[in-house]
Automatic annotation (TrEMBL), chain A:
This is Oxaloacetate tautomerase FAHD1, mitochondrial. Keywords: Metal-binding. It catalyses: a 3-acylpyruvate + H2O = a carboxylate + pyruvate + H(+); oxaloacetate = enol-oxaloacetate; acetylpyruvate + H2O = acetate + pyruvate + H(+); 3-fumarylpyruvate + H2O = fumarate + pyruvate + H(+). Its EC number is 3.7.1.5, 4.1.1.112, 5.3.2.2. Residues 16-216 form the Fumarylacetoacetase-like C-terminal domain. InterPro entries: Fumarylacetoacetase-like_C, Fumarylacetoacetase_C_sf. The gene is Fahd1_0. The keyword Metal-binding applies. Belongs to the FAH family.
TrEMBL record, chain B:
It holds the Pfam family FAA_hydrolase. Its EC number is 3.7.1.5, 4.1.1.112, 5.3.2.2. Belongs to the FAH family. SUPFAM superfamilies: FAH (SSF56529). Gene3D superfamilies: Fumarylacetoacetase-like, C-terminal domain. The keyword Glycoprotein does not apply. Coiled coil: none annotated. It comes from Polyodon spathula. It comes from the Eukaryota. This is Oxaloacetate tautomerase FAHD1, mitochondrial. It catalyses: a 3-acylpyruvate + H2O = a carboxylate + pyruvate + H(+); 3-fumarylpyruvate + H2O = fumarate + pyruvate + H(+); acetylpyruvate + H2O = acetate + pyruvate + H(+); oxaloacetate = enol-oxaloacetate. The gene is Fahd1_1. Keywords: Metal-binding. Residues 16-216 form the Fumarylacetoacetase-like C-terminal domain.
């Protein structure tokens, strides 16, 4: 059997993507959302993954696709109700991710009390970089992430601004949803989210670590 | 390497569960929801699976756990934008499923415009029966599904009542979310949803095909 579980290609076999919303105060504010007392969790299915070389596709039902650059955490050892002080032992590494969001659809879902699925879980809604081994990022709570559209800087933030830390998130999530090797946790986005159009080129990175490039297409 | 991709144990390796809400008009009505013009889709992660022999565990943050009995469709051949008239070729078989729902949390999520994750995606929120090969259900659009709590019938419906048919759902979903072998689609629940408590015994079945039993526990 070809692929054993190679963490370098976690997107090929990983079974879930858990996303944390509103984890940067300035992003909550720009969308006029309350700053939460508990993490806001939503899911993307693994069919959402897209890697460099392939394009981000605007979902046919949306007219307002937004970028959201995020630090992703890749789980190396699963668990349930993982204590915060053990959380970092469960990490295999990281990835730079974009939580692509159909903002118009999300606004409608929020108004109507509907699930966020069509806003967040469509094909190519989770562009990811190569896998980054744990040792490459000494302190994931203090890295700079950035995103440009057509070379113009749109987002720039530091993970130190996260409301809920990575160990807290791993612990909190795993009390409700058991984590497994290969799972990806998207840890939220700083302010500066904006629309992207067909033919736009997105560049994003973790300063000093990795950068990615993706083009946007319409179906 | 031990488990190849054995469809008989699809829950061990399947990568996604896609659920359809409000697909029976009597259920939409009982929850005072509008009958939808398009399917309402939400996700459960594979960590939600629970099979007979293990218990359904009430999430610690909920005081109103509801049962929802559903016909599940197991995908045998993946695809994107699958045409309706080819949809049934992509089906490997079925499973009886319960879409366990923290109703109190769901009501709060709806009011606040939040995702339904804590209401629908917690551990043990997707009890499933054994895998039912396709040939065992000649017409999945006309089977009776039922659920009892402590021997008392609570839900009883026929899949003929579904607003959106299985071929429509496979086609609709696969335009937005590519389907893959081992995926499970929960196709909605008829009226009669109700609360379950610790120590309750749930029995559910597809008439003439399968039945299953689960106990409800509170977390340790």
């Amino acid at each position: 059997m070809a692929s054993a579980r190679n963490i370098n290609r976690f997107w090929e076999w990983g079974r879930k993507i858990i996303c944390v919303g509103r984890n940067y105060a300035d992003h909550a504010k720009e969308l006029k959302n309350a700053v939460p007392t508990e993490p806001v969790l939503f899911l993307k299915p693994p069919s959402a993954y897209v890697t460099e070389g392939s394009s981000i596709m605007v979902p046919f039902y949306s007219h307002n696709l937004h970028h959201e650059v995020e630090l992703g955490v890749v789980i190396g050892k699963g668990g349930t109700a993982i204590p915060q002080n053990a959380a970092m032992d469960h990490i295999a590494g990281y990835a730079l991710c974009l939580d692509m969001t159909a903002r118009d659809v999300q606004d409608e879902c929020k108004t109507k009390g509907l699930p966020w699925t069509l806003a967040k879980a469509f094909n190519t809604s989770c562009p990811v970089s190569e896998f980054i081994t744990k040792e490459k990022i000494a302190d994931p709570g203090n890295v700079k992430i950035w995103l440009k559209v057509n070379d113009q800087l749109r987002q720039e933030g530091n993970t130190s601004q996260m409301i809920f830390s990575i160990p807290f998130l791993i612990s909190y999530i795993s009390e409700i949803i058991t984590l497994e090797e290969g799972d990806l946790i998207l840890t939220g986005t700083p302010k500066g989210v904006s629309s992207v159009q067909e033919h736009d080129e997105l560049q994003a990175g973790i300063e000093g670590i990795v950068s990615v490039k993706f083009r946007v297409h319409r179906p």
